[in-house]
Design goal:
By secondary structure, the chain is α+β, with helices and mostly antiparallel strands. Helices cover 25% and strands 27% of the residues. The protein contains 4 helices and 9 strands. A hairpin with a 5-residue loop joins strand 5 (37-41) and strand 6. The radius of gyration is 15 Å and the shape is globular.
Length: 186
């Protein structure tokens, strides 16, 4: 696979696993997609696990700050992707609502020193949310299946409208086929 299909926005394949954030550099925070759920690895190497079965109502990705005024970026979120002294600085959050107990949760990740296209973030959110709505979020823990989805989404060049993003997500899930492991929700 080429580099384009090895990453999509902040999602990147590292050592055979998919992670949101810069998992390739030491001392960084990232969120790993594993068969049993999301593993948030903190800068101090502590890990928090969110099982796939707890996630409800989809996902949202923000860069720079936990709650930007508009859209997905704060000022630092934009500067972190540009050349100069702020390149690669800052991070982002994966927002979700979980059950048992019901609460909003944010998992932090450090950003890569590359620019993330807004369209990539939006289409990634769209496919992740679709999987939650379909009760299939556990598919993200299958690295080979996620690779097929990312390869399909990396070719998305349509308008980033709600309908366009939903169509792209549906097409990517269909094109990826069934999970490689056949594992169900954990």
């Amino acid at each position: 696979m080429d580099l384009v299909s090895e990453s999509l926005g902040p999602l990147e394949r590292v050592d055979g696993r998919w992670a949101l954030g810069d998992a390739g550099r030491p001392g960084r925070a990232w969120v790993e997609f594993r068969p049993d759920g999301l593993h948030a690895i903190a800068r101090d190497s502590a890990a928090e696990v969110v099982p796939w079965s707890r996630i409800m109502l989809g996902f949202r990705i923000t860069l720079g700050g936990r709650y930007p005024n508009r859209g997905a970026y704060t000022q630092m979120g934009v500067l972190g992707g540009l050349p100069g002294p702020f390149k690669g600085r800052g991070g982002g959050y994966l927002h979700m609502t979980v059950r048992h107990p019901y609460e909003d949760q944010q998992l932090f990740f450090d950003r890569h020193p590359r620019w993330y296209r807004t369209k990539d973030i939006l289409v990634l959110q769209s496919v992740m949310t679709r999987l939650v709505e379909d009760g299939e979020a556990h598919r993200l823990g299958d690295a080979d299946w996620t690779a097929r989805v990312v390869a399909h989404l990396s070719t998305f060049d349509g308008w980033a409208t709600t309908g366009g993003l939903r169509r792209a997500a549906a097409e990517a899930v269909e094109a990826a086929g069934p999970p490689s492991t056949g594992a169900g929700p954990s």
